[in-house]
Design goal:
Structural class: alpha+beta
Number of strands: 18
Helix content: 10-25%
Radius of gyration: 20 Å
Order of helices and strands: HHHEEEEEEEEEEEEEEHEHHHEEE
Number of domains: 1
Amino acid sequence: MPKSQLQCYGESVYCTSEDILTKCARGKNSLERFIAVVAWAISTTRPVIFGWAPFNPVLGETHHVSRGNLNVFLEQVSHHPPVSALHATDEEERLELIWCHFPVPKFHGKSIKATVNGKRHLKLLSHGESYEMNSPDLFFNLFPVPGADWAGTVSILCKESGIEAELIFYKAHSFLGFGGNSRLIKGKIFHSKSSKIIYEIDGQWDRTIFLKEVHSEKTSVLYDARQTILNLNTPFVKNLQEVKPTESVVAWGEVMKDILEGDWEKARDDKRELEERERRLRKERSCKGEDWVPKHFKISQNKEGHWECWPLESSVPPSPIIVPT
């Protein structure tokens, strides 16, 4: 597809018809805010089209977009392995998001499992609350019916309120593509200390998910995918002079143009030229004994191989690329 994976990560944050992040910040109490955070976490899980792959971001590539008061910035901080860092801030709602992506693919014969490592940290600064969560795994089924789906367990924790959630994304089970229910999700919201369940969660993450209060058995809609990710607006460049040369649409601009025009041969040549230039740069740094240092994030890797990212700036400035609201 004519876009970078870095753009896809960013789109899961700023491409929404419904502003769920604002609901997180404006919740009247800790439980109401927590429910909104759960809905937002689900909203970042978008359907993946099997057979269409974005470009692998080049080292140092950036993606910077603003939607209303939300400013989102990403940088590819490592290429081998591929690690992407995201920082988003909304100074009016006083929220901050730090998100580190580190996918690790593994072949399983009939499928490929991409474990998406890295933590997301959502901070609601006005309430002194910080929410930590992980991502589900992405499965590519090769046989008997090709397709892509999210599966696995997502945990969301707010230490300040003592509330926690567990979401289970179920991988579809069917015979030759028939009779299976795909994209199911079940979960619960509970008190961390007592494990007492407050709400039960049930539905399909690409359609509608329901929230049932355990005490009263009252049911409401937690998340409506159609309302959140349909009728999206296309970003536009407000000020071309301010767009960084490392921006995804600049770095991959020629390849994107070739694909959109249907010139696949030129697209392959331009893509190969860009990747070979990146290999030469890596080789030159290796010969000089230089290590790549990200410009916008500090990164570290622990003994278990997990990566963490911290933004160097406290807030993200407005972008010359705008999403209409």
